[in-house]
Design goal:
The chain has 430 residues and is an alpha/beta fold. Helices cover 39% and strands 16% of the residues. It has 13 helices and 15 strands. The protein binds beta-D-glucopyranose (BGC). Beta-D-glucopyranose is lined by residues 22, 25, 163-164, 167, 240, 278, 332, 370, 377. The active site is at residue 332.
Length: 430
């Protein structure tokens, strides 16, 4: 049974409603990437390998057919640097053609492609040079962006340079700690966001500052290259919004905590054409730092508190930090669950919180659900985020009820919205 959406908010013309994936999580056999190397290293901390993933490298036409038949008008996917440039300076023409065909394929099906250049994975050779800590990283990424421009030139309007740079920078710190622990340093701590218990204060697990600066440089260098190739292209990056909530008296602590983990990356987007918001849950901050998820809270398959209102709070926070002149695309929002009714209930509330922020004037231009498909969740196939189920042996796709429900909202151009008097100028349909 799908919930009634009440009066609903009529979406502005051109609003993008769709779903997201990333190359490594759905394509399969991304063998030239650093993540593939990590997964397949002996004694790796990565529990499960990506393997064939959802075989979308071959089955992308079917994925796009399904999304468009379901009623969506947008698809966010990423192009894989490790396929486009499997060795430094060697561009695979076949990979470029592959992704150009994907862009054309999306457009032919009425799906606006939102294309990410880097979604967590890098070519193995890039990591071996030191990855984002290499002094050459911004130049190397900008060179790749020059090649990617050829793909985007097929008709892409929205491109993202780097997905969740804040998580990449945090990951660097975690990997450094893991390496130190492996070397027998007992003082090395570990933790993380998205529900993990992060440390605060001296020695805190926080995004690596050098990597943060390198990512901002790389984002700007790539944006300049892409803009020079196509001045009409709208370029942004997508940030993991952690929805830090200060407990009474902890406002100052929360602001200090949020800066290196999120706000520095949002501020860096002030000159961009758009900003991607990715929100799943909240993180409560007390006077001494982050608080654990309450014992009695309902949680998802990733252990995150079920808190759909995170989405509305994330777009409001982003608009406050970046400024009202930068439009927002929600590039990820969803829930890891095997219970599809719960997915619908969560998304209903998330969309209602989004609608309420839009009604208050936040400029949101699209909503892309994470994820289009059940996919590889960075070390495990167990947390299922997909609107479409994928059989791991036959790769057969089966849209879930949530896919049909969300597709029908996309078709109707209307999302759930809590009843409230709409301020002048914003339409709320009855
Ligand atoms: C990432 C996705 C990931 C999702 C759920 C985001 O952090 O961009 O790759 O699968 O969240 O964890």
């Amino acid at each position: 049974m799908t919930p009634s959406i009440g009066p609903g908010l009529v979406l502005p013309d051109g609003f993008l409603m769709g779903a997201s994936t990333s190359a490594h999580q759905v394509e399969g056999n991304n063998v030239s990437s650093d993540w593939w190397a990590l997964e397949n290293r002996q004694g790796s901390f990565v529990a499960e390998r990506s393997g064939d993933a959802a075989d979308s490298f071959h089955r992308w036409p079917q994925d796009m057919d399904l999304l468009s038949e379901l009623g969506f008008n947008a698809y966010r996917f990423s192009i894989e640097w490790a396929r486009v440039e499997p060795e430094r300076g060697h561009v695979s023409r076949a990979a470029v053609e592959h992704y150009r065909a994907m862009v054309r394929g999306a457009l032919e099906r009425g799906l606006t492609p939102v294309v990410t250049l880097h979604h967590f994975t890098s070519p193995r050779w890039f990591s071996e040079l030191g990855g984002w800590t290499s002094p050459e990283s911004a130049d190397l990424f900008a060179t790749y962006a020059g090649t990617a421009a050829e793909i985007l030139g097929e008709g892409v309007r929205y491109a993202a340079t780097i997905n969740e740079p804040n998580m990449i920078a945090l990951m660097h710190t975690l990997l450094r700690h893991a390496a130190r622990r492996a070397d027998g340093d007992p003082g090395s701590t570990a933790g993380g966001d998205h529900g993990g218990a992060a440390a605060f204060g001296p020695g805190a697990i926080e995004p690596d500052a050098e990597v943060t600066r390198a990512l901002i440089r790389a984002h700007r260098a790539a944006s300049a290259v892409l803009k020079a190739a196509d001045p009409a292209l709208r370029i942004g990056w997508t940030i993991a919004n952690q929805v830090y909530q200060a407990e009474p008296g902890a406002e100052e602590t929360a602001a200090v905590y949020a800066w290196p983990r999120e706000d520095v990356f949002l501020e860096a987007a002030r000159e961009d054409d758009w900003i991607g918001v990715q929100a799943y849950t909240r993180h409560r901050i007390g006077p001494d730092g982050p608080l654990p998820v309450p014992q009695d809270a309902d949680t998802t398959l990733t252990g995150w508190e079920i808190y759909p209102e995170a989405l509305g709070e994330a777009v409001r926070h982003t608009a406050r930090v970046v400024g009202p002149h930068v439009p927002i695309l929600v590039t990820e929002n969803g829930i890891a669950t095997g219970d599809d009714d719960l997915r619908i209930a969560y998304t209903t509330s998330a969309l209602a919180s989004l609608a309420s922020a839009m009604r208050d004037g936040v400029d949101v231009r699209g909503y892309l659900h994470w994820s289009a498909l059940d996919n590889y969740e960075w070390g495990s196939y167990r947390p299922t985020f997909g609107l479409i189920a994928v059989d791991p042996h036959t790769f057969a796709r089966e849209p879930k009820a949530s896919a049909r429900w969300l597709g029908s909202l996309a078709r109707a151009g209307r999302i759930p919205c809590p009843p409230a008097a709409a301020p002048a100028g914003v339409s709320s349909a009855g």
